[in-house]
Design brief:
By secondary structure, the chain is α+β, with helices and mostly antiparallel strands. It contains 16 helices and 8 strands. The strands form 2 sheets. It has a 6-stranded mixed β-sheet. Strands 1-3 form a two-stranded antiparallel sheet. Strand 6 and strand 7 form a beta hairpin.
Length: about 575
């Protein structure tokens, strides 16, 4: 083996890489236009087009086909331009798909449309009275019609090649070389074939006569036209037996249009400038446009689907980031209360132990408070994790009055610090609810803590009112009202949104978490203005079905304040 031959031989690693790439392309072909299966709607549309073409054929092929019309010189130029543009754009789009799929079948049909587009040029140049009275290129009377025959025979041949190449061995139907080189070679060979056919037709004066004069076709035309018709029928049959994609479906329609176009010129009498002849040209433009329209529509549809997928992926990514931020903000927001309690209890325990005579019982109480706060922090974190994972909650029968008392007890230091009086209106036997005790307590603690923050800087009376009652539809209604500045009307629908806050140092997660918890319990949470000022947050939680306790009206006026200072609440 020579050195040059060794250099030309692909390396094993390159062969392996090429095989892997081909396998990847084969795996992804189901998502590419030329491999998409046609939908029932597309099949019905294709059938409707075929029926329309057949109806037009049988309508025109009768007495109308023989009616001669005036010669319109510009018609041929317009027809040729439309055919060239549509076929050339279709070829470019199919070459683009070949660059993705590397399918030899796509390369064949791309060259077929390129061949049809290029054949239009010599056909128009040799047509009499379009550019010159007898045509250009030194053509005789027979050149135009023979170029038409080659044109309408060459394209079906390429369609047949496309249909046959679709069913070859999957490892052999993909192009293994350079895509750019394949396209350049195909364009060059196709242009060479067109040039050679044009030269042979225009240079050989001994061609069988298919024209009697510039208008009348000879009887030999009817026999010569049988070749393109037979090739078109063969291509249509092969596509029918191998139909798998949208492209296959519409190529069958194109072959049907080819047969009808030639038939309109052949029957009943072959002649130019008749209704049948003009109608055949119109159907020719239609057949050239079909695949182009379908390609553009399907590409637009796939592009729109790609945009939707990208947008959905972007929204999902933003949602993940938002969820991550929400989880971290929720943990930071909810863990703040237990950490503050642990810090306060630890400081108190240190003071009790630093005395000359350590007070061990008080220190032990402080340590127990630290342990309780730590357990509560752990329970809060697990509750938040369960909420974002949408896990099943641990539902038990819960007494809402007990939860109110526990929540007020946890925030007793803050209430005393800000000199807030507390009024509770709790019925002796409140309705019990079914839910997660820790999460419902978390909601009450958040609502009360927000009320404390709202009243912390107010100059007027600071009163927190917590009331529970039975709801007429079944369930418990808990309301937490304050005498703070209240919630602006424009913010009432936004304060429950994640990361929305009106506080200078707020995270905007407390109320969002509260509403999520309440809605997870099939309840509701809303806010209304308090009179004369402040806000009232109310939550409704369905009652425990097993609860048969009587419903008593709340005992109003249960104000528990310290005897020394009525502004400081003594919570028992």
């Amino acid at each position: 083996m020579t050195v040059q031959a060794a250099r030309r031989r692909p390396k094993p690693r390159e062969e392996c890489r090429s095989m892997i790439g081909a396998a990847a392309v084969l795996k992804e072909q189901d998502f590419i236009l030329s491999s998409l299966a046609p939908s029932p709607g597309q099949k019905r549309l294709a059938l409707a087009v075929v029926v329309f073409l057949l109806a037009a054929f049988f309508t025109i092929v009768g007495p109308l086909a023989a009616v001669h019309l005036p010669k319109v010189g510009a018609f041929i130029a317009i027809y040729a331009t439309a055919m060239f543009v549509t076929d050339m754009i279709t070829a470019v789009l199919l070459f683009a798909q070949f660059s993705i799929l590397r399918s030899r079948a796509l390369l064949a049909i791309s060259s077929g449309y390129l061949f049809a587009a290029l054949m239009v040029i010599p056909w128009m140049l040799t047509f009499p009275s379009v550019i010159a009275p007898t045509g250009l290129l030194g053509a005789g009377l027979q050149s135009t019609v023979w170029l038409y025959m080659i044109w309408h025979a060459g394209f079906p041949i390429m369609v047949i090649a496309y249909a046959l190449l679709k069913d070859v061995d999957p490892t052999q139907r993909l192009w293994a070389g350079s895509v750019r080189t394949a396209i350049l070679w195909t364009v060059g060979l196709t242009a060479g074939v067109v040039c050679a056919a044009t030269y042979l037709v225009t240079a050989d004066p001994q061609l069988p006569p298919l024209m009697l004069d510039p208008v009348q076709l000879s009887p030999l035309w009817a026999y010569a036209a049988a070749g393109p018709i037979l090739l078109s029928v063969t291509a249509g049959v092969l596509l029918w037996t191998r139909r798998r994609s949208v492209l296959d479906l519409w190529l069958m329609v194109v072959m049907c249009a080819y047969v009808i176009e030639i038939g309109l010129i052949r029957f009943p009498i072959p002649a130019r400038y008749s209704i049948g002849w003009y109608s055949g040209r119109v159907i020719g433009v239609l057949s050239a446009s079909l695949v182009l329209f379908v390609l553009l529509y399907e590409i637009t549809t796939l592009y729109a689907g790609l945009l939707r997928a990208v947008s959905a992926q972007r929204r999902e990514r933003e949602a993940r980031l938002m969820t991550g931020d929400a989880v971290s903000a929720s943990i930071a927001h909810e863990i703040r209360q237990p950490l503050a309690a642990m810090t306060t209890s630890a400081a108190a325990g240190r003071r009790w132990l630093n005395r000359e005579t350590p007070d061990l019982p008080e220190a032990m109480a402080a340590f127990e408070a630290i342990s309780t706060a730590g357990e509560r922090a752990g329970a809060l974190i697990e509750g938040i994790r369960a909420m974002f994972r949408k896990d099943a909650m641990t539902r038990t029968s819960v007494d809402m009055n007990e939860l109110v008392s526990e929540a007020l007890g946890q925030l007793s230091d803050e209430l005393r610090e800000h000199r807030i009086s507390v009024r509770t209106e709790l019925p002796t036997r409140a309705p019990r609810v079914t839910g997660d005790r820790v999460q419902l307590q978390q909601v009450l603690v958040n609502l009360i803590a927000n009320a404390i923050d709202a009243m912390a800087n107010t100059e007027g009376p600071r009163e927190l009112r917590v009331k529970s009652a039975a709801h007429e539809a079944g369930g418990a209604v808990i309301s937490v009202s304050d005498t703070g500045p209240g919630v602006e009307a424009t913010h009432r629908d936004q304060i429950f949104n994640p990361l929305f806050t009106t506080k200078a140092h707020g995270m905007g997660m407390g109320l969002s978490i509260c509403r999520s918890i309440v809605e997870a319990h099939d309840g509701q949470l809303w806010v209304t203005p308090n009179r004369p000022h402040g806000a009232v947050f109310q939550l409704l939680v369905p009652a425990d079905p097993a609860d048969s306790a009587g419903r008593e009206k709340p005992s109003k006026g249960d104000v528990r304040a310290s005897g020394g200072d009525p502004a400081v609440a003594r919570l028992q």
